[in-house]
Specification:
The protein is of the alpha+beta class. It folds into two domains: about 80 residues, Winged helix-like DNA-binding domain superfamily/Winged helix DNA-binding domain (Arc Repressor Mutant, subunit A, Orthogonal Bundle); about 170 residues, Beta-Lactamase, CATH 3.30.450. It is about 40% helix and about 15% strand.
Length: about 290
């Protein structure tokens, strides 16, 4: 392995005789990310329902009717009707010229504040640590920043042999990384085209996708299945799995890196664990009193 490529090295762990990941994942069913805000877990039901409505609208391509909002958010139709009108009155939703509900102008204030106030490592670190804890593998979070796909936070694996932590700020060859392909797949076309026009599809290994039509075909598969895989495309012997936050609406992705043989054996467990974690972000807060 190349010494200037910290992500691809596989490091033996000296203090653990066997892998904790072999029995760490369990067989719990995968949660649906659309229903990440589960009403029994919250204190104010109406607020949780309003948030479900906003997420449902945000995840739509061009807006939704009330009946579609109720179905996508798994809410009673009458409650949805009243909450939609409340959200319209507060400027969080509006109706477009086709009569569909879309995000209102005041959401822009929240979006701008999010960009201004966000410290990615602070918010994503507990989630990444949980992935590493559950799987024993090296985990990291990646996101869009100033037009680049950047490594934001990492957590070292605990298995006897694991991928080393990637350097924060790493951003090259997104087309060969699971996280990069996932973020590109869910990006708007103008953002995706701009990125790809500025970055060559370099062949990291003989498995790397280097033709644009083939890469776009993979983007379609990623959107359909809801996850992305790096099958030794960035480095031989290393595989990665990436899942989106909020069904791809969020500009961040969660990723796990593993030696290829262990990755193949535990893929289903890894995918279930990561989807479960991504669907329940609120339980991984730094301060439980917030």
């Amino acid at each position: 392995m190349s010494a200037n490529n910290p992500m691809v090295m596989l490091v033996p762990r000296q203090d653990s005789p066997e892998s904790p990941a072999e029995n760490a994942l369990g067989s719990q069913p995968t949660d649906n990310p659309t229903n990440a805000l589960r009403e029994p877990d919250v204190r104010v039901q109406s607020v949780a329902r309003a948030m479900k409505i906003l997420f449902a609208v945000a995840q739509s391509e061009s807006g939704l009717k009330t009946v579609n909002i109720a179905r996508n958010a798994n809410l009673p139709r009458q409650a949805t009707y009243h909450l939609v009108h409340t959200l319209m009155a507060t400027g969080m939703l509006r109706q477009n010229e086709r009569g569909l509900y879309v995000l209102g102008l005041r959401v822009g204030t929240l979006a701008e504040a999010f960009r201004r106030q966000l410290v990615p490592s602070q918010h994503l670190a507990p989630i990444v640590r949980e992935i590493s804890k559950m799987t024993g593998e090296t985990a990291y979070a990646t996101g869009w920043m100033d037009g680049e796909i950047v490594m934001l936070v990492t957590a070292r694996g605990t298995n006897p042999v694991h991928a080393t932590e990637a350097t924060h700020g790493t951003h090259e060859d997104a087309h060969a990384r699971a996280s990069g392909k996932l973020l590109l797949a869910f990006a708007q076309e103008d953002v995706r085209s701009d990125y790809l026009s500025r970055h060559a599809l370099t062949a990291r290994t003989n498995r790397t996708v280097t033709k644009l039509p083939d890469l776009y075909s993979e983007f379609e598969r990623i959107r359909a299945q809801g996850y992305a895989i790096d099958n030794e495309e960035f480095s031989l012997g290393l595989c990665c799995l990436a899942v989106p936050l909020d069904n791809g609406v969020s500009p961040f992705a969660l990723t796990l890196s593993s030696p290829a043989n262990r990755f193949q054996r535990h893929f289903d467990e890894y995918l279930a664990a990561m989807r479960r974690i991504a669907a329940n972000l609120t339980q991984f807060r730094e301060d439980p009193e917030i």
